[in-house]
Structure formats: C-alpha cells, structure tokens
Design goal:
The protein has 167 residues and is mostly helical. The protein folds into 2 domains: 111 residues, 50s Ribosomal Protein L17, Chain: A; 34 residues. The protein contains 7 helices and 3 strands.
C-alpha cells in the first residue's frame, strides 16, 4: 500500500534521483522541451515548477537557491533572463506534458515535457514546406495538362454551368 507516499522514487536512491532531476530540469530550461518517460516527466514537473516560480523575483538569494537545485550556471542564467519575463503573468502551470506513445524497446510510455510559453515559438521556427518536385517530370506534365487550351475550355464550361444552376 502507498500510505500517502507522494514521491515517485523511480527505482533510484535519493542521490541518484536528485542528480537525475537536476540534470533533467537544467535540460528542460536550456532546451525548452525534452523527450522522456511519463513517470519521469510527472516527477520532473513537481521538481521544476517551484524552481521556475522562484525566477519571478530576481534576487541574489533566489539565484543561489535555484543554483542549489540545478547545479548549472547556464540554466540559471537562462531561467532568470529569458524564462522569467515570459512567465511573469502566469500563476502556475509552467510545464505541459504531451504523451507520444510507447518506446519500442521496453514499451515504456513516452512523452514530451515542455515549457508552456515556448510551444508557439517552436512551431513558428519550423520552415514552410516547399512544393515537392520530382526528377521524373510528373509534376511538370500535370501542370502542362491543366494549362492546355482544352483544359481551360473545360473549366470555363464548368463554371458557366455552375452559374446557370444558381439562377
């Protein structure tokens, strides 16, 4: 029985679990989104949200307390410079877990855990997909077929028929 045990120990000792959470939190802050198992993501969420909440007030004490948990000065700098300005108005819920299916090797439930305010930015950075052309020339023949006089006459006739039906 659980008897109210709130911490998922993740089959690790305390020191191993603390190092795991510290490294995952630093990676989340630096990369804004990481791929992990659902159990680790849920444990990370409870670990990292109070740390992110501390970044709202940029004081020396808060920086030292955050560094105590993260042990990564680049992550602390990123958190207090960029992330804190984005989360200033938010009252909690800084992370989002998106389930992605199962891992092939051991069928573990996998997910992405990411910072909520950075999801829109990640979608915007993707390149716009260009129309795919092939070397076979199929795309060209299709384009030529549509612009032939016969095709133009057929489309014109269809539009005239559509206009007659409306009246």
């Amino acid at each position: 029985m659980r008897h109210g045990r709130k911490i998922n120990h993740l089959s690790r000792t305390h020191s191993h679990r603390a190092a795991l959470m510290s490294n995952m939190a630093a990676s989340l802050i630096l990369h804004k989104r990481i791929n992990t198992t659902v159990a680790k993501a849920k444990a990370l969420r409870t670990y990292v949200e109070p740390i992110i909440n501390r970044a709202k007030a940029d004081t020396t004490h808060n920086r030292r307390m955050v560094f105590k948990y993260l042990q990564n000065k680049y992550a602390v700098t990123e958190l207090f410079r960029e992330i804190s300005s984005k989360i200033a108005e938010r009252n909690g819920g800084y992370t989002r877990i998106l389930k992605t299916g199962t891992r092939r090797g051991d069928v573990a439930d996998m997910c992405f855990i990411g910072l909520v305010d950075y999801n829109a930015n990640m979608l915007k950075t993707g390149q716009v997909a260009k129309a795919k052309t092939t070397r076979r020339g199929r795309g060209k023949s299709k384009a030529k077929a549509e612009t032939t006089p016969k095709a133009e006459a057929e489309t014109k006739q269809e539009s005239d028929n559509a206009g007659d039906k409306k009246e």
